[in-house]
User: What shape does this take?
Amino acid sequence: MIERRLITIHGIVQGVGFRPFVMNVARTLELRGSVRNDSEGVLLDFEGDAAAFDRLIDRIARNAPPLSRIESIATASAEVVPHHDLRIIASDTNGERQVQVTPDAATCDACIAELFDAGNRRYRHPFISCTDCGPRLTISHDAPYDRERTTMAHYVICTDCRREYEDPFDRRFHAQTIACSSCGPTLRFEAPSHVSLGDIALCDAVAALRHGATIAVKGIGGYHLACSAVDADAVHRLRARKRREAKPFAVMVKDLAAAHGLCVLTDAEAALLRTSMRPIVLLEKRPETLGISPALDALAPTNRRLGVMLPYSPVHHLLLADFGAPLVMTSGNLSDEPIAIDDADAQERLHGIADAFLVHDRTISTRCDDSVVRVVRRQSAFVRRSRGAAPAALAITPALPAPVLAVGGHLKNTFCLARGGHAFLSHHIGDLENVAAYRALTESIEFYERLLGVEPAVVAHDMHPDYLSTRLAHELNASEHIGVQHHHAHVASCLAEHSQREPVLGIVFDGAGYGSDGAVWGGEFLLADQTSYERLAHLEYVPLPGGDAAARQPWRMAVSHLLRAYGGDVGAGPLPFAAEVAAAQIDILTRMLRARVQSPPTSSVGRLFDAVASLAGIRHVAQYEAQAAMELEAMADPTEHATYPFDVNATSDGWTIDVRPLIRGIMHDVARKRTPAHIAAAFHNAVRDFTVDVAERVRRRTHVRRAALTGGVFQNALLSDLIAGALEQRGFDVLLHRQVPCNDGGIALGQALVAARTCHAATRTAVCA
Ligand code: ZN
Ligand code: ZN
Ligand code: FE
Assistant: This one.
């Protein structure tokens, strides 16, 4: 009995070898008909034996290609119109787009094997790829994903590649990035004295690296600056030229064994390194390598961790194999500017930093920094979600009533487009502190709207009136603009990840966010759901001296906390920062704080970490964002049980946490010459203790026993572990971020969720229901 069925498959099913995979299965099951991509996903129009359809669905569900992600399979019967063959029909570009764009994927094992096989026709071809691997987002102009809508469009496929492209049994059947050395992009080495092409370009680059040069390497989502990671002079030179004195550099190592040589790896970390995202993984340096190599120390000074990644493009594989040692691979920019992608722009901006360029003639359409992850409580947590992760959809349940654009925050900006049951969090845009980043944000929003076919009815933004993102939001056309409180957005993004609809206790420990009372919030206990929040507790306000300057100079927060702890005086003992900060400066700041000049009130836990890092003698002036807090975490002895006292005071609508006893306890330990390791650990324990204390009070009042830990401070794995562990021990259900960063890189998702659930369309739906 011959039947005809129309099967629609939704999810990530385009540009991942799905059609050839289905063709192969269909062929073995003797089905006939057609396969095509369209705006709905992949459509199969097959006829054959009824039993064959069951096996088809089973094999699709079980053996789908590695980069695909099936969300639904819908089947409908249709009238039989005899099909005589099995074929792929070209894409349909009309209609509303529902398809998802795939993130870039690292070179797969099969391609790596061919890359190093002297008998293979793509031996050492720097642009080898197949349907299971290669660039996607970063070469796309538009959707659906087909070669003509990528920056590969103008490379004319040669006869040999064409044969593979059209052979349904080949791994490269309909591989849109198919190329070989006779038809693909060309590698080019450019030094002041000469230019070389192809394999010679690669050899020249390796030779230059051996001589200590810095090379700008054009990669997948932008330029990297590369130099030998085992050459201390080269590393220091790169630091000086990049004007990056202390911020850690990431390194690329050849394989897992090389990673093991530098760092201690858990199984979870090794697995993360190997994912097709190939992120930078923050790993613990091997204690025995510390201090033995000046170069290795220079990579991440004063840091116990090192960012490590494996090669993810064929060029990387060839470079690492030929060079034979780890390479520094840091983003190709000056500090704080967006990473360079355009060739002319890169030449201009990286001219004074790089000695030479290793480039190619394939255009990067979208800037995409490396993703950064670390393991928190034995699972992956994003520090930066970008290449290899964006723009994969995050599932939203229930579906949103209106399409939304959320423009994100000010630092670590990402934006979010959401529609129906999907939210698309963008790649990392960066800190919106310069024109280039602002331009990158506006251009990327336009690109994503086109790519995903989303026309937002609602625009969500932070409540901070002066954020550039807020101003941009008001310039965009939409039927509604909705401001979402910063810390509510943090909690909502965690709720979105966990499809959590009931109210939770949102524990938000953060650097800074605009509060509804105009204060700088950042130590918040919010009873929150996807639509609203109630502020139940927070850290007692202290003055934030000089606003943003306080974050760069932790000693300023130390003075602020001391003045408060000792009733307007800095206390009797010697000041821990006196050796590094002039007495006159301390005096000026003290008077400024007493007079409350330029010192808005703050409840920030991030700034409390800064203050304590300074009081413990660890860091008084930061060279990069969150350096003091990171060093405080690294310094803490996890076996230490000591803690510090604090007070929790009842107010008319909740509680405040008074850390004056904690500050006095630290000064007592400083006077007794306790080690920074002891103070750092006891402080972490004290933060755990006041968090648990307040959480239990909230539970007694509200009966809410689920807590979401969010805000940038929770990038601190030790603190996350301490607080989550203690809360779980007391019967709380703890939600942590897994799919988006807990820092401001994740708030756009929360903004989108809150705005979509509170906009006119949502309230209308609620009334109708
Ligand atoms: Zn491959
Ligand atoms: Zn070719
Ligand atoms: Fe924040």
In short: The pocket of zinc ion (ligand 1) is lined by residues 107-108, 110-111, 129-130, 132-133 (CB under 6 Å).
